[in-house]
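A reminder from the course coordinator: this example appears on the midterm review sheet, so study it carefully.

Given structure:
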């Protein structure tokens, strides 16, 4: 695994959610992308490892890690739908790929995927897409904060 991300080397992180055009047309994409971005940036800010976590373009000359989160698979299940119709609401599926790049050099420093799918045996207690986005954001942000494996 190539993972050369070290929080101390870049005090700023810019986070974007970017998926291919077909994925952006999937029902629930906008809601899921917004939640994923919010959970991920909240986790990074809470870690205290980076001086600034933003979704804005960085100031020129700033040492920045750019984190691109791409939703690679999605079957959206809303919490209200799960509560009302249970198993008939369908299986919630979410897959996300994270790529981390040094914005100054353009060099990719790491890539990681995470996914989750509910299963019918969980019934009304199976995760909604929102809960999956929260769990995946936590998993990916923890990897970013952890730095290189030694």
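Designed residues:
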């Amino acid at each position: 695994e190539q993972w050369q991300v070290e929080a101390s080397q870049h005090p700023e992180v810019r986070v974007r959610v970017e998926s291919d055009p077909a994925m952006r047309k999937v029902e629930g994409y906008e809601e899921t992308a917004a939640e994923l971005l919010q959970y991920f940036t909240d986790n990074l800010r809470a870690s205290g490892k980076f001086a600034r976590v933003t979704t804005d373009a960085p100031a020129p000359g700033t040492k920045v890690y750019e984190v691109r989160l791409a939703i690679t698979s999605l079957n959206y299940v809303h919490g209200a739908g799960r509560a009302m119709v249970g198993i008939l609401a369908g299986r919630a599926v979410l897959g996300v790929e994270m790529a981390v790049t040094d914005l100054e050099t353009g060099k990719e420093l790491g890539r990681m995927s995470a996914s989750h799918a509910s299963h019918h045996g969980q019934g009304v207690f199976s995760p909604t897409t929102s809960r999956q986005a929260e769990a995946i954001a936590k998993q990916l942000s923890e990897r970013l904060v952890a730095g290189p494996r030694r």
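Confidence is low (pLDDT under 50) at residues 80-89, 120-126. The beta strands are 12-17, 52-54, 64-75, 93-102, 108-117.
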